[in-house]
Amino acid sequence: MHARDLPPAVFLMGPTAAGKTALALALAAVLPVEIVSVDAAQVYRGLDIGTAKPTAAERARVPHHLIDIRDPAEVYSAADFRIDALAAMEAISARGRIPLLAGGTMFYFRALEHGLPDLPSADPGLRAQLLAEAERDGWAALHERLRSLDPDRAARIHPNDPQRTLRALEIIALTGQAASAYGIRGPAPLPYRVVKLALYPEDRVWLHDRIAARFRQMLAEGFLDEARGLFARTDLPAGHPVLRTVGYRQAGLYLSGEINYDAMVERAVIATRQLAKRQMTWLRADPDARRFDCSGDPDLATAVTRHLFAMLPV
User: What are 217-258's pLDDT values in tens digits?
Assistant: First the structure.
């Protein structure tokens, strides 16, 4: 099938706090889209304030998919996401609408677009064992173990990325082969004609200020109570990747008395800025993404809408 005959889909990518949710809602007001979340934390129920999850009112304005589909104790991988996203996209397209995939989990975007190698499913017993080791020895020790077993994969995984570190070690234990031996792509390309949009703030001070303001707003909305409920769960060990999500990890240190309130705020803001920097590095490496400077441009939605009208059959 020729690319022009494939159903359309839109990728709306960008760093945290860049305004993806607001822009997705603005686009939904003028285009026949449904929103598919591309966020590794928003899939979990109960992680609401700390993940800047769209509100109930926002989700009532336009259909949203892949939000609140897992309990935090459940495993959710990039392979799971690809299966769920493809199913949601197929249903959206069958309704004569356009899937708008919006979020900041860049590895999920890559997994969706290029596929994933055929890897073994997660093993709950092995995963529990690795989580216990992480709780005992720290995630830095597990990342160092991965570096000794699979240096190529370790070089592509940030030491503060417990989910991917866990998965890489799990693959080695289950198969006896390094995860890098499988490559990073699968055999099946995405059966859609994709238009990629990247929110890319040229003014980094603007983004840093938004990150700080948003975290303080989360605190005002009750983020610490939300985090307290998660850390009180006996089925979530301290080293669980969900509890190490940016913001929640720092809240946990405060709730346990390891740091004070001001240190929690400072560390959470710094960690979120570092996350945004990594997300922007991914975006710079994608030659197909049309960048839009989102740092305070009042006409951003208009510019993006015009671009989409020129690219999509609407």
Answer: 999 999 999 999 999 999 998 778 899 999 999 999 999 999
Report the alpha-carbon distance of residue 89 to residue 100 in Å, rounded.
9
Task: Report the predicted TM-score, pTM, of the whole model to 2 decimal places.
Answer: 0.82
- CA 198 to chain centroid, in Å, comes to 14
What letter would DSSP give residue 74? S
CATH of domain 124-182: 1.10.20.140
Nearest to 66, CA basis, from 106, 115, 99, 113 = 99
Q: What CATH number is given for 3-116+186-311 in this structure?
A: 3.40.50.300
Give me the pLDDT at residue 160, please: 74
pLDDT of residue 162: 81
Which contacts (CB < 8 Å, 24+ apart) does range 169-175 have?
169/130, 169/142, 169/145, 170/122, 170/123, 170/126, 170/127, 170/130, 171/119, 171/120, 172/146, 173/123, 173/126, 174/120, 174/123, 174/126, 175/119, 175/120
Strands across the sheet containing 98-103? 64-65, 33-38, 98-103, 8-13, 193-199, 290-292
- Rounded to whole angstroms, the Cα distance separating 14 from 106 reads 9
